[in-house]
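Hey team,

Sharing the Zinc ribbon domain-containing protein run so nobody has to redo it. Sequence (175 residues) first:
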Amino acid sequence: MRRSYRYVGPAELKAAVRPGSGGRRIGSAADFDGWVAGRSAAELAEPFTFVVGADGVLLLAPRRSEHVACAGGRPVLSAGEISFAREAGRWVVGDVSNHSTGYCPDVSSWPSVAQALDRAGVGRPSGFTHEVVFRRCPGCQEHNIVREGDFVCVFCGGDLPAQWNVDPLTESAGS
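Structure output:
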């Protein structure tokens, strides 16, 4: 079973999501080839916003897009930023992170990203190249990014749990 992540960011960002505003669905190598062919060198020089939808399909949007817009407001299996490069005549992931303060996915969401990239025919690393550890403070309820293994809330100084706890109401999705 894979964890599904609900949007936990500012409500006004989710309220601004409009039907059809989601990211570009990349469900196959042909989808990726078509998408990447339409990108300029300048676009490809920057990372893109990505989510893996609850159906396991990769969705891509320009970097400055909100993850919740890329996902069409729906729950995701992972979210973050991703860059692509050409290597030995094929497309590969340059960097990939789970950095999404709207969904705060756990680093354990990597298998969903790996499967979506494999489906898209894109070479990938064995895990996130930059892992972001998210926790919700049990005391003040603020979302935190844990840096350098220091599990202390930056807002109130309280201890943060060792296990992911950002959204206690998350659901599990079938694998």
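The beta strands are 2-4, 24-26, 48-53, 58-61, 76-87, 90-97, 133-136, 143-146, 171-173.

Ping me if you want the raw files.
A.
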